[in-house]
């Protein structure tokens, strides 16, 4: 007798600058799922934030375009009536949700909070880790508390800059120097990031970053290799082999990641075993520092002058096509893309089941 298939709800698209990246991720995942184990229900969130639920798939979709669902004006209400069934005492038609959303409203804890309210199991980081992993300023504070080495940085909000730009610019010049990198605190895929080489460029870069977020992080420039490590697990996570990004640009910006196609990934990274083990250990510490679950990719600088390691950031929903860094890191560590999907789904179910043994009120 064969076990019943699990029905996986794949959430993708979203009100985000990374909408198209999410579509690519969803198409890749739906083509790699083992349909002997799973049925897949596509749930497409369009750029206006409307939810569209498709028919159950028992095989991979024919094209990427087939995932861009349009259910009309009533689509969101119909999708929510299915997703919220458990709260009205009905049996859920979906066993586990798999968010494949990148950036705002998908990777920042907002949709994870919705899943918690729905009482639905879901893959990946919870509310806290998602929020902390998106907000670079909060993330850096948690890393500092965990004793993780970082490059020097300054952070401020828009209101502080409007009231006291002169002093903030002076502090950046004094503490970080030029060149430096200016980033919106709460975006992914290098959107809104600029490299500033003098005061004039710094002012322009800050104004540009403030178009995307109300909080800005400015970091010193480090002459370094960019090395990344995948983390997989819940309470007892594992770390992958490290891989190196060789950017086609001056730094790994949006064009270098997604457009020009000339950046390279070296997996495993060409580093000695001691450095690789140190990176893996720091990746696990970073995952625990943000209270991670399921998966993350930890990104590091390895300074060229002395091989010192500095953590840059973690990404709780990294690029996830079959050719993205995170799955490739695990492939080189001995876990295929379909096996990775299996484990992530099981980790989401395990976390849900363990949390449901807890009491949320006194007897």
UniProtKB/TrEMBL annotation:
Pathway: Cell wall biogenesis; peptidoglycan biosynthesis
Location(s), subcellular: Cytoplasm
InterPro entries according to UniProt: ATP-grasp, ATP_grasp_subdomain_1, D-Ala_lig_Van_CS, D_ala_D_ala, Dala_Dala_lig_C, Dala_Dala_lig_N, PreATP-grasp_dom_sf
Tagged with keyword Nuclease: no
Cofactor(s) the protein requires to work: Mg(2+); Mn(2+)
Catalytic activity, reaction form: 2 D-alanine + ATP = D-alanyl-D-alanine + ADP + phosphate + H(+)
Domain of life assignment: Bacteria
Job of this protein: Cell wall formation.
Family classification: Belongs to the D-alanine--D-alanine ligase family.
Designated name of the protein: D-alanine--D-alanine ligase
Source organism of the structure: Paenibacillus hunanensis
Taxon lineage: Bacteria, Bacillati, Bacillota, Bacilli, Bacillales
């Amino acid at each position: 007798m064969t076990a019943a298939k699990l029905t996986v709800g794949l959430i993708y698209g979203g009100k985000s600058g990374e909408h198209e990246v999410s579509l690519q991720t969803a198409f890749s995942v739906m083509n790699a799922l083992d349909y002997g184990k799973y049925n897949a229900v596509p749930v497409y969130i369009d750029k206006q934030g409307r939810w569209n639920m498709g028919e159950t798939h028992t095989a991979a979709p024919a094209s990427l375009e087939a995932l861009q669902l349009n259910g009309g004006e009533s689509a969101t209400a119909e999708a929510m009536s299915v997703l919220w069934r458990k709260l009205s005492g009905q049996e859920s038609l979906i066993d586990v949700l798999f968010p494949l959303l990148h950036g705002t409203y998908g990777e920042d804890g907002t949709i994870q909070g919705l899943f918690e309210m729905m009482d639905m199991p879901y893959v990946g980081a919870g509310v806290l880790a998602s929020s902390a992993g998106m907000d670079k300023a909060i993330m850096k504070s948690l890393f500092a508390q965990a004793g993780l080495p970082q490059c020097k940085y300054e952070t401020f909000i828009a209101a502080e800059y409007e009231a006291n730009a002169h002093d903030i610019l002076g502090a950046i010049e004094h503490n970080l120097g030029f060149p430096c990198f200016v980033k919106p605190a709460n975006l992914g895929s290098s959107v809104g990031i600029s490299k500033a080489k003098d005061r004039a460029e710094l002012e322009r870069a800050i104004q540009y970053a403030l178009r995307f977020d109300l909080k800005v992080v400015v970091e010193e420039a480090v002459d370094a290799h960019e090395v990344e490590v995948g983390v997989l697990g819940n309470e007892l996570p594992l770390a992958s082999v490290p891989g190196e990004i060789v950017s086609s640009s001056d730094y790994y910006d949006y064009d270098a990641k997604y457009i020009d196609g000339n950046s390279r990934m070296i997996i495993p990274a060409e580093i000695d075993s001691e450095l690789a083990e140190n990176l893996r250990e720091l990746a696990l510490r970073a995952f625990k520092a943000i209270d991670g679950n399921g998966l993350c990719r930890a990104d590091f600088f390895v300074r060229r002058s002395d091989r010192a390691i500095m953590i840059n950031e973690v990404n709780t929903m990294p690029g996830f096509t079959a050719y993205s860094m995170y799955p490739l890191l695990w492939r080189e560590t001995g876990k295929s893309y379909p096996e990775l999907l299996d484990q992530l789904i099981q980790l989401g179910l395990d976390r849900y089941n363990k949390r449901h043994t807890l009491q949320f009120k006194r007897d």
